[in-house]
Amino acid sequence: MKKLTILLLLVSSVIYGQSPKIPANTNDFVNDFAGVLTTEQEHSLRDICREIEAESTAQVAVVVTNDIPEGYPIEEYSIELANNWGIGQRTIDNGLLILICPNCREARIEVGYGLEGILTDYYTSRLQQDYFIPNFRKGDFYTGIQQVLLKVQNQISPEAIEQRRQHELVLAKEAYVERQRFMDGLFVFLVFAGGMGFITLMLFLYFRHKRVKAELQKKADETKVNLAIRLETIIQSVKEMDGFLNSKEVLKELEFLHLTLDNKFKSQPLDKYGTIAYEQLDRINELTSTLLENYKIKITIEDKVSELPALRDELAKLYTTAWDNKYSVKENYASDLAEMIQEPQYSFDTIITKIDAIYHKSMSLIIAQKFYEADNTFEESQDLIESVRRYNKLSYQVIESIQASWKFLKTAEDEFAKRCDDTNKLMKDNDVSSSTRNKWNVFKETHSNFNADAETNNPVAEVKRIEGIFKQIASFKSMAQSDIDAEKRRRRKKREDALRRSSYTSTSYGSSSSRSSFGGGSSFGGGGFGGGGSSSRW
Questions:
Q1: Quick one: which of 59, 86, 150 has its CA closest to 520?
Q2: 2-156+514-537 has which fold?
Q3: Are the C-beta atoms of residues 381 and 354 closer than 8 Å to each other?
Q4: Angstrom distance (rounded) from CA 291 to CA 303
């Protein structure tokens, strides 16, 4: 617990910038460090605290102080003080701290572990609302404290606890009698409700049977209608094939199936309609699936082949544009693009001739009803077109890359000078290490002539060289900033160590010269606190 208190103190010191001064343990019930109580008032309050301890062994300490730093949470100050003083008995932690800061206009009732079940957060909050705030606003600290102490004494005294226990027993007995009355009435109700429930169940089952039968009839009718619509739709599709492959034979089978459809369902139970419908659908799919798939391929290939003349014209345009781009690049820049662009495999005339051959071959295969072969043949022309499209796209990318490189190179030398100036300013910081400065000076000397190693015939390569230099400058800035940050962390740690040593000195947990001023020679018993209680402002 002491380690936790020290940790809280250190964290609060860092956050709020000032370490709280915890007074040494006085072993006294009433401690008016702010001078708001008279001597007679202190004696009166101390007598109440002494009576509380005599009746219940609980220890109450009243502390009035103005030493809480501005902005420092009174909750943290309170629990530090309570744990440091050890208010309450060690074995049962029945301590209570009443902390008041007149200058801050704040108060706190800190409750030890052992009293949290009796003095709840809600109860202590109500005490402050009813007695602290009205009296403290008038400057009457004595009355507010006295009334709260008397309420606490009444709440935790053995007689009060016993009265509450007896009251709870009476309430429990009344609840038991009420439960018995309820159970007797419940039994009578259940007997009556059972008879009514049986009649209701019979009526429910009767009407449910009628409803289920109606729903089953409706579902069976929908199944027949949907199957008929499906069959009529497929028959119409097969008629539109106009004798394609075995469509005439399939059409006869489907029309016969349609004529005998009603007989399939006649004299069958309603719950069998679904099974019959699935059987008929399977038969329909068996007759038409292959035919429909082939017809779909036929339509698709015919559409593709009809596009070949237009694709051939597109190919010619793309091919011409690609070669124009290639010659434009080579004419303006002395760089070999063979590694960057994969040239087309065929010459212009060869590709056009091949497209024409594919067109005629595809048409022949369609007429011969070899649709899969026609599809594969069509893909050959697509591959040729895609190769020219890729070439054209790459050539545009190369031209854009070279143009962007020249645009970058126009401002590169000025950007180099600007980045060097920024880095020089950072290097002047006293926290930068001599090693980092020396490396930077060697780099500047090496690159004093910015254009010494320029790639004059290759703008793309020149951009890469300059970007490498810029990355080196950025790394030197990063090294310098790291040196500065490391030095700041070292100084901050040194201050924190000094603060920690001073905090240990200011938060002693007792004093060899602490006085025993409880009247009877008593002292706090070492009770523990865990944050129970409440705070208020006025």
A1: 59
A2: Diaminopimelate Epimerase; Chain A, domain 1 (3.10.310)
A3: yes
A4: 19
Encoded tokens for 466: 């300059």
Length of the chain: 538
Residue 136's CB is within 10 A of a number of other CB atoms, namely 23
Q: Which residues lie closer than 8 Å to 324 by C-beta, 6 or more apart?
A: none
Full DSSP string of 403-441: HHHHHHHHHHHHHHHHHHHHHHHHHTSTTS-HHHHHHHH
Whole-number mean pLDDT of the chain? 78
Q: What is the separation, in whole angstroms, between the first and last Cα of the chain?
A: 31
pLDDT of 174 higher than 70: yes
pLDDT, one tens digit per residue, over 287-341 is 888 888 888 877 777 776 676 667 667 666 665 665 555 545 444 443 444 434 4
Tokens at 157, concatenated: 């005294």
d(CA 511, CA 82): 15
The dihedral sign for the CA sequence 22, 28, 30, 32: negative
For the chain, which residues make up each domain, given as ranges? 2-156+514-537, 177-305, 306-411, 414-496
